[in-house]
Amino acid sequence: MKEAIAILTGGGPAPGMNAVVGSVSKTFLGKGYRVIGLHAGYSGLFSPTPRTVEIDYMLADDIFNRGGSYLQMSRFKPTDKNFAEDFNLDFFTSNNIKLLVTVGGDDTASTANRIARFLDEKKYPIANIHVPKTIDNDLPLPAGAPTFGYQSALDKGSVIARTVYCDARTSGNWFVIAAMGRSAGHLAFGIGTACHCPMSVIPEMFNKTEITVDKIVNLVVSSIIKRKIMGMDYGAAVISEGVFHELSDEEIKKSGVNFTYDDHGHPELGKVSKAHIFNEMLEKKLKEIGMKVKSRPVEIGYEVRCQTPVAFDLVYCSSLGMGVYQLFNEGKTGCMVFVDQSGKVSPLYLKDLQDHTTGKIPPRLVDINSDEFKNTIKYILSYITPEDYQAAKQFVPDPENYDFMKILNW
Q1: Are 97 and 25 in the same domain?
Q2: Are residues 249 and 166 part of one domain?
Q3: pLDDT score for 259
Q4: Which of its termini does the chain have fewer beta carbons within 10 Å around, N or C?
Q5: Claim to verify: residue 239 and residue 187 sit in the same structural domain
Q6: Domain tally for the chain?
Q7: What's the pLDDT tens digit per position in 109-123?
């Protein structure tokens, strides 16, 4: 029987999923392997009747530059009971599978390692290689390498934000844009910088003070006042959804958001419109201080996850896909594939990324000490400074409360 590989996609989608699957498939097919795609992530491996698809070269070629994921994704995370009672070992033995390729985030990678160890205990050793993805760009890859999907999500998000900003200028109003980013503000800050939005709010900015609802709102109000002083009655503020994660329980109650949680313990932010919540909070504040400003909410979330990959991600994901075969051929297993900026392929092991105390992979945050960040704050954002206090008093009696640097305790 021909040797085979199995490939699955887990978690949520990111542009480039199909480019990875298509490139992995083409490469292994060219080396004489069968390629079996698994639908519904890991759930198929714990079912007596997994939904599978035989991926041939024509199918791989058809899907590689499409958005979304041809292999249906799932956030299913097996329990110890699933391993003990439901694991479908026959799927691997009857198909002569030698490699399990997983495409997903760190949760998906961790589960892949558990499966490899389990199969080894069953005397059926199998290699496993993971391809890391996230539009949040928050995996701590070496030398600042982006995670695949980020550049495409940033491009699509910037198209939306540019259009919204044009609407603001045309209509004389403000927009509150909320962008995905569970732990880090890369996407929100990238969109804000690309579009020269006068205010961006990300969790990393609150390195010297606690994040509160009032501070988030006051940063936006600071920008609105500054623009009024400049004679501009319009603008857009980009806020990262990650600021919700840093709010205390008391502050979350103030925001009016009631979260549910997924199987990994993450708040299901996709079930609420962060833009709507932020905008409601802003409107309430503007009414309190007597400022007549029209504001509208815009969410940038699911709209960018299945974006057609831009050229950067098509090339990057192709390199990652081909890199899977290179590592497998070198006998590597239990690792993630990494391609640096020079195109060099190497294995990246979870233990090298994990915190030695917690065992978790810490998120890569926006570097607020970088020249890029500092220059954006200084030259692109609009906000109140002490020099503006006198002019700002025509709009608010206490302009010092809207001083950007004081709010952040910088």
Answers
A1: yes
A2: yes
A3: 66
A4: N
A5: yes
A6: 2
A7: 778 878 888 888 888
Segment 263-267 mean pLDDT: 65
pLDDT, the chain, mean: 92
> Within this chain, do residues 268 and 317 fall inside the same structural domain, yes or no?
no
Our answer to whether residue 80 is catalytic in this structure is: no
pLDDT, tens only, 221-257 = 999 999 999 999 999 999 999 888 788 878 777 766 6
Domain presence at residue 245:
yes
Residues 182 and 128 in one domain: no
Could you tell me if residue 359 is inside a domain? Answer: no
pLDDT at position 1, please? Answer: 82
Q: What is the CATH number of the domain that holds 274?
A: 3.40.50.460
Ranges 184-198, 314-328, 350-364: which has the least confidence: 350-364
pLDDT higher than 80, residue 58: yes
Q: Residue 256 has what pLDDT?
A: 67
Please give the structure tokens belonging to residue 274: 């962060």
Q: Cα-atom radius of gyration of the chain, to the nearest Å?
A: 24
Catalytic residue among 106, 136, 313, 388: 136
Comparison of pLDDT for 323 and 105, the residue scoring more = 323
Is 329 in the same domain as 238? no
Neighbours of 11 (CB within 10 A): 21
In this prediction, residues 310-320 reach a mean pLDDT of 97
Q: Are residues 107 and 245 in the same domain?
A: no
What is the 3 state secondary structure string of the chain? Answer: CCCEEEEEEECCCCCCHHHHHHHHHHHHHHCCCEEEEECCHHHHHHCCCCCEEECCHHHHHHHCCCCCCCCCCECCCCCHHHHHHCCCHHHHHHHCEEEEEEEECHHHHHHHHHHHHHHHHCCCCCEEEEEEECCCCCCCCHHHCCCECHHHHHHHHHHHHHHHHHHHHHHCCEEEEEECCCCCCHHHHHHHHHHCCCEEECHHHCCCCCCCHHHHHHHHHHHHHHHHHCCCCCEEEEEECCHHHHCCHHHHHHHCCCCCECCCCCECHHHCCHHHHHHHHHHHHHHHHCCCCCEEEEEECHHHHCCCCCHHHHHHHHHHHHHHHHHHHCCCCCEEEEECCCCCEEEECHHHHCCCCCCCCCCCCCCCCCHHHHHHHHHCCCCECHHHHHHHCCCCCCHHHHEHHHHHCC
Domain that holds residue 157: 153-305+367-408
Looking at the structure, do residues 92 and 159 belong to the same domain, yes or no? no
